[in-house]
Specification:
Blueprint lengths: L8 E2 L9 H11 L6 H22 L3 E2 L20 E6 L8 H5 L1 H11 L5 E5 L8 H15 L6 E7 L1 H7 E3 L5 H21 L3 E5 L2 H8 L5 H18 L8 E4 L19 H4 L6 E4 L12 H4 L7 E7 L9 H15 L5 E4 L14 H22 L4
Parallel strand pairs: 1-11, 2-5, 4-6, 5-7, 7-8, 8-9, 9-10, 10-11
Antiparallel strand pairs: 3-4
Helix pairs in contact: 1-2, 2-5, 6-7, 7-9, 8-9, 12-13
Length: 386
């Protein structure tokens, strides 16, 4: 994994807006409508090539395929894992959250606007096995083709964590939730290993690790920490044999465009987070609920071989960050852990589900451009010319 040895490198979390025609085709496919499979496959290839060029044009160094082929950052596993089938509408997980209890009117309106949930509830009704080799190899081939002949710093592919699969695709087969969790970990190891074997960095997407506290109002911080310890153990099991320097880990507080007064504090989970066998850690640091948490790293011992990817732009606001503010955020982290161990990133993705986006694509592009410009400003200060 490259470090910021000569300048601050830039990246993002993974999901990026899809073209409208691809969204329409993906929706039809998800709804079981007949589609022209050759046309769909060709459009995905084209979209990956387009998003690769877009990232480079925006000034990003460490890029991915934008998850163009995926209907969602977690729902894509519905066809890659055996033993999972639909079981009715998916309930709104936020309806019983700490946030909804504090702001019931706001979350009731939000649920009404979204239809009360997101799609179909998938349930595990049989043994979990990985059956997504064909889809994964297609993703890898499309990404490699898009990168051919281009000059990039590094490339990564995102994959969902066992913890998020456990939460989204409910267990109705295994004796215990832990049995289910570790079965998922065994299955997802195949996807993780294949991504690294293909020559890419592996990004693990794991918002549930820190969002669990918000969604479980009856549990204390201590109880959520105990729960998280087991989930980190399962993730490390899934990452077995993969060099940590090939892994970047991302967590965040989900796509909650709300007040967020109950987000779990970084100080309450950071020690558990750092037990994950990864070379870099990506986390929220650019929105008003978490920007102050850069100071946590003043008292946390970060191993010398680890890198931070703090969010310096956020998905939670349509305001486009000023490049000078982005630079200030980068400089704070560089002062604490060293310039070489900071890569400028984002708080979260900008299109975690194909048919929706957290903010308008035009604003997402402007934010990513501000990220790159801010990194250039920070680099000029951190590597002054003699």
């Amino acid at each position: 994994m490259r470090r910021s040895s000569e300048r601050i490198l830039t990246t993002h979390v993974g999901s990026l807006p899809r073209p409208d025609d691809l969204i329409a085709m993906t929706d039809d496919r998800e709804q079981g409508k007949p589609i022209d499979r050759r046309a769909y496959d060709a459009r995905v290839r084209g979209a990956v090539a387009e998003i690769v060029r877009k990232q480079l044009a925006l000034g990003l160094d460490i890029i991915d395929d934008g998850e163009q082929s995926k209907p969602g950052f977690v729902t894509y596993v519905n066809e890659r894992l055996s033993g999972i089938e639909p079981a009715g509408p998916r309930a709104d997980a936020w309806a019983t959250s700490r946030e909804a209890a504090s702001f019931p009117e706001f979350y009731a309106e939000a649920a009404q606007r979204s239809g009360g949930g997101r799609g179909v509830q998938m349930v595990c009704t049989g043994p979990i096995r990985y059956q997504g080799v064909t889809q994964l190899q297609t993703d890898i081939a499309n990404f490699k083709a898009a990168l051919a002949g281009l000059s990039i710093v590094e490339a990564f592919l995102p994959a969902i964590s066992p913890t998020n699969i456990e939460g989204w695709q409910r267990n109705a087969y295994y004796k215990t939730d832990e049995d289910y969790l570790f079965a998922i970990a065994d299955a997802m190891h195949e996807e993780y290993q294949a991504i690294v074997d293909a020559g890419f960095l592996l990004q693990i997407d794991d918002p549930r690790l820190v969002t669990y506290y918000i969604l479980q109002p009856r549990l204390s911080v201590a109880e959520c920490r105990k729960w998280a310890e087991v989930r980190v153990e399962a993730l490390n099991h899934a990452l077995r044999g993969i060099p940590p320097e090939k892994v970047r880990y991302h967590t965040c507080y989900s796509i909650n465009m709300g007040p967020r007064i109950h987000d779990m504090a970084l100080r309450d989970i950071v020690d558990i987070l750092l037990k994950i066998r990864a070379g870099a850690y990506s986390f929220e640091a650019a929105n008003p609920r978490h920007e102050h948490e850069w100071r946590v790293w003043e008292s946390v011992k970060l191993a010398e071989d680890k890198i931070l990817i703090p969010g310096v732009i956020t998905h939670t606001s349509v305001l486009v960050e000023h490049p000078e503010l982005v630079a200030e955020r980068i400089l704070r982290f560089a002062a604490v852990v060293g310039r070489e161990r900071v890569i400028a990133g984002a708080d979260c993705g900008f299109a975690t589900f194909a048919g929706s986006h957290e903010i308008h694509p035009s604003i997402a592009w402007a934010k990513l451009q501000a990220l790159a410009e801010g990194a250039r400003l920070a680099s000029a200060e951190l590597w002054p010319r003699s």
